[in-house]
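Figure S7 source data.
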Amino acid sequence: MPSALLRREDLLEKIDRSLVPRHIAVIMDGNGRWAKKRGLPRLLGHKAGADSVREAVKVCGELGVQVLTLYAFSTENWSRPKSEVKGLMALLVRTLRREADELNANNVRLRASGRLEALPADVRRELDRSIDRLSGNTGLILNLALNYGGRGDIVDAVNALLKAGAVSVTEEDIAAHLSTAGLPDPDLLIRTSGEYRISNFLLWQCAYAEFHITPVLWPDFRRQQLYQAVLDYQSRDRRFGGI
Ligand code: IPE
Ligand code: IPE
Ligand code: MG
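Tokens for the predicted IPE complex:
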């Protein structure tokens, strides 16, 4: 039976627990279209997307994924209408506040990747507070990509190395200065809403990531769709340039 027709329980049973991706990265796209389809303002799409975030965190924890990186705001997203940017930032603060208890109960650690210093002060404050509060946990690392751009991440890493006196750099040096330093590279990159592009996400880190692209819009991407993405990943033959 094609996996799209299987029930959640059956999908879960098919997942090989010894082959779960260590790091899943997600381009959470399609909130605006989800809202538009329903005649709702775009911000309600983002709000519905926050429920998918909660579910993704929960499922990744259950499956034993080590890192979940979510593309929440790109360096290019500042070009959206001011009201949408403001709404997204407010939603982020509210979600961090509201979810902190449950994240803590689920043993989740929090970190963030991106040019965080350019985020609004209240976002930074709430982020710092949540990161601090969850820092003693030992389970899933939830990494929020905020004001994140892959090219900027590489440029910032190189500039940090130059500032420290480097005259030439290695791949290891760059990796150690990216905003994902210390995290394994993503094994699985998911993009929702059917766009076939990377939109400046984790350019360096996704060198050998497996791509799962689904037409499902992010607010509709829930447990079953995540199981399907992991199963898709497990069906791949990862060769890393070998034979
Ligand atoms: C993704 O949904 C969320 C962010 C980029 C913050 P979009 O807002 O890009 O939704 P679409 O692509 O317009 O449907
Ligand atoms: C990518 O989605 C950024 C995030 C999900 C935060 P976009 O909607 O901004 O990407 P494009 O514009 O379709 O490439
Ligand atoms: Mg989009």
